[in-house]
Write a structure and sequence with these properties.
The chain is mostly helical. The protein contains 13 helices and three strands. A three-stranded antiparallel beta sheet has the order 1-2-3.
């Protein structure tokens, strides 16, 4: 017999707890739960009787019905692999192959575009957020939950707790940003432990709100490319590298576990170098 709704809910709750203990958070935690729920609904059979064929059938249906991109299939595969291997201790996903996620060069803003984006953002909290994302290179989820206690304004550093992979790290703060932050804190109407709070409550600003702020500013600035909080993270890393900063330091500031993840920015800067015209061609 298939799982009863109450049994399925209990199973998924335990799965969610297992993910939390393993250090998963944010969108990954949410999507892993969604895909596990979809899979159980698709198979509609007892967990003990689920086999490799059921997983393959679900992945095939996902590809066929939604024309899922390789990155999505890889995420579904990872979610089910954790569900069966790490959670249920059932090795049925290990040898199932899915297309590798295509490695695309990140979209990066020019320095002029960053200036335009900041200028197009309304003064106050919103501009402070945009400046912080570019000045520190943090992920949007990290920016949303950073607290005032995490900042050391005298040393011009901040600590990011439990980043991706549950890693803590130190980030640098901009002198100009610190000066503006102090002004904004004096104008706050509602006290909050968070650096970026909602306007009328103590709660932290949502990642959706941050994304909307940046989207609207990019449109106002007339930037033709798609701009997200992660675009500012990419731009931060690329501009540091172009400025001659050591790639190992950039790796630490971004919180990358592997240097290879950071090295993608060397390809971005190489593309910029290719735009330089040889002086010989001007003769």
């Amino acid at each position: 017999m298939p799982l009863e709704p109450a049994e399925q809910a209990q199973l998924l709750e335990r799965y969610n707890q297992e993910l939390l203990v393993a250090g998963y958070s944010g969108k990954t935690l949410k999507m892993y739960g969604i895909y596990a729920r979809q899979f159980l609904a698709h198979t509609n059979k007892p967990v003990d009787s689920i086999d490799r064929g059921d997983v393959v059938a679900f992945l095939a249906k996902k590809k066929q019905d939604t024309n899922a991109a390789n990155a999505t299939l890889a995420l579904v595969h990872s979610a089910l692999k954790f569900f069966f291997h790490s959670f249920l201790k059932k090795k049925i996903v290990e040898d199932i192959k899915v297309p590798k996620k295509a490695k695309k060069l990140p979209s990066v803003l020019t320095m002029e575009e960053v200036r335009g984006l900041i200028k197009a953002t309304r003064f106050g909290r919103n501009r402070l957020i945009v400046e912080f994302l570019y000045a520190s290179g943090v992920r949007v989820s990290e920016a949303a939950k950073i607290k005032l206690d995490d900042l050391d304004l005298r040393e011009k550093i901040a600590r990011v707790w439990g980043g991706k992979g549950n890693k803590d790290r130190i980030i640098i703060l901009s002198t100009a940003w610190i000066k503006e932050l102090k002004k904004q804190l004096k104008r706050r109407k509602v006290a909050s432990p968070f650096v970026f709070s909602q306007k009328t409550t103590q709660n932290p600003i949502s990642t959706d709100t941050i994304e909307r702020i940046i989207r609207e500013a990019a449109k106002k600035a007339g930037i033709p490319k798609r701009v997200t909080p992660h675009t500012l993270r990419h731009s931060y890393a690329t501009h540091l590298l172009e400025g001659g900063e050591n790639i190992r330091k950039i790796q630490e500031l971004l919180g990358h576990s592997n240097l290879s993840t950071t090295q993608i920015y060397t390809h971005v800067t190489t593309d910029e170098l290719k735009k330089v015209k040889s002086p010989l061609d001007n003769l």
